[in-house]
Amino acid sequence: MAKVSVIVPVYNGERHLEKCMDSICSQTLEDIEIICVDDGSTDGTPHILRKYAAGDGRVRILTQKNLYAGTARNRGMEHAEGKYLSFLDADDYFEPHMLEKLYHTAEERGLDIAVCRHSIYDEALEKTVEPGWSWQESFLPEKEVFRGTDLKNAGVFQAMRGWAWDKLFRTDFVRRSGYVFPEFRSSEDGFFVYMLAVSAERISCLGDSLVTHRLNQKHSLSAEKEGDWLNGFRMWKMVREEMEYLEIYDTYRQSYLNEIIDYLAWYLDSFRTYEAFRKCFYYIRNVMEEELQILCHGREYYFKSEAFDWYQKVTSLSAGEYLFRGRLEKDGRILECKKSLDLARTREREKDWVFPFHMLEAGKTVVLYGAGKIGQSFYRQLTESGFCRNVIWVDRRHGECGDQEMQVRNPDIMDTENFDYVFIAVKDGEAQKEIRKSLLAKGIASERIRCFGQSGDQGQTT
After folding, report:
1. Predicted confidence (pLDDT) per residue in 6-15, tens digit
2. How many CB atoms lie within 10 A of CB 70?
3. What's the rounded Cα separation, in Å, for the pair 93 and 90?
4. pTM of the model
């Protein structure tokens, strides 16, 4: 049995792959296996991997079609034979003593998880940036070995970051837990790392910086997440729901909500297209607050008052107002999307009705029935927030909808389209009853029909 299995998922990583592989192959801990999972690369990655496998018998190559990093890591874990698991992204690199120091620490202290510090290489600045550690370390207990509940405010989400490459995991602990990486495209490692962190009995943090992470790469997966913006929210929801299932959410709630605010501030400002920013912004306002009730706890509940102030700003302003107040002016994005922002502000002024997001599940296909003032407002909110997988907009008077004619369709389309819910966006009670009767006549089950005015959803924006 190898002491450590190093798992490297790689997709089109030729630019930095050799530095990554050199940093692993030259580790002072030699009794390791190196499992490289080629995630359907179309560049020179396969050739580079074959070169290393030919020169070092510890290197194994697994191949798969492009299923993203989470799936690749899971496949690597299935084949891992080492006592400990280590994960490294193909554009990052280890310091020479990384594995040796973490391995010996884990063995001496009987750890489930060993954590080290990291450095950051900012490609935009072309220099190494040392992250500040005082905030993270302020949550650590004085003892060397601890569990999540030993941390100040049970601050497991503050003391450790939700990535895997600065940690060593005991293999049998991981396999007993049953946790794997979610198989969506981005933000997939947080669930795996955080659930192991709250499950571990023995964790220890080293003060040495033993791995370097590249930041601000133009061609990295993290820089291409614009179309997958919902994944960050999915990850955090998975973490919360799993903790609720284990009945430990109340223990970690304060830590979780504090980290959520920090994460959302970073996540919102990380987008480079206005469309992704806008969807993320309205999801925070219309879904996250509804689910988590962050504002209900009050400012004193949060470790960083400025983070709470930021969150209040997001939940009280429109996207246009938020941007024009200067949060993103510093990096020039404001100039690139001024026309879109002007349009967003105009739309915000027209938005009179707040869609009752709590009445539907996220990620579903919804038929929005009604193209009047309420229907128009709801259609904008549903499409801008990205809450639904798809929105089919229908109205019996679809031919009279003016500039919405290309969007509003004949209700008969429901006979051939697949959908999860129908939402009747009509205020008049008699009209609602008539529409509902026609839907039931089509064989649409009553529990799939929602109506304007149910569950106190008639609040107007100011």
Report:
1. 999 999 999 9
2. 22
3. 8
4. 0.73
